[in-house]
Amino acid sequence: MAIKDLTQPQVERLLKKAQDYAVNPAKFYQHLNHIIVANLFFEDSTRTRFSFEVAEKKLGCHVLNFSAENSSMNKGETIPDTIKTLEQLGVKIAVIRHPDDHLLETLKNESSISFINAGAGKYEHPTQALLDLMTIKQEFGDLKNLTVSICGDIKYSRVARSNVHLLNMFGIKVNICEPEELRVKDATLDKLVTKKTIDEALPESDVIMLLRVQSERHDGQELNKAEYLKQYGLTAARLKKAKAKTIIMHPAPINRGVEIESDLVEHAKSRILKQMSNGVYMRMAIIDEIAGTM
Ligand code: CP
Q1: Is the pTM of this model over 0.70?
Q2: Which residue range(s) make up the domain with 236?
Q3: CA Rg, the chain, in Å?
Q4: What is the pLDDT of residues 92-102, one digit of tens each?
């Protein structure tokens, strides 16, 4: 449900298993062909939705893609009743993305189905943080003495929250670089991070992780995009301050020219596409671990 529900040995096991899948990228497995998985996305998604589906298919799972628009929710059926229905049809694992921060907490005792959080409101996006950590580990091997700077719209970011907790679990220093207009008031988060400007953070960062400006969550608050890039975004000029081995990450989708200068998305330092392929392997590892407990 959230990073706090995982232990460090469990995360290390997921990293190892995901890496094992990554070394055989073309391989399809059949060992989970007795498992039905339902994907329920109540918010838009490209990467998470399709990488879960690819992961499920690579493991041999049978996949149901639930679409709220064509479902009996249009006739007033609730999500708990929908889940009870899926349980009766034989679904064992449900992957859920929903705008409510805590929907999964309320569902967990409603059925025998195992839930995977594919993005919960502004609360957590744990599978994204896990694939991010996999990408960092591939790059640096040892996770000791690293500094990750998370820059951008942290206030509305479930990715930032999951990453702060996961990076802390591994003793990685986390800087947060937040725009004036999007300051976070979160005492728990504040204790785990150092606050810096992007210009202060860049020279010491091993990873510079940009976050999308989530305009859809801003209640009409308009930011000037060109000004945002100039003040808070990653530009080629700023990148000159980074160390030789620094990498650029972004969970995507990307607002090119807002939080990151467009050309830097494909820069040699960028691992943004790598994060996407790692998403499949990490989600395979997560599904495999859950299936192993059934
Ligand atoms: N990173 C991420 O969650 O992307 P999607 O919204 O496309 O799933």
Answers
A1: yes
A2: 126-276
A3: 19
A4: 999 999 999 99
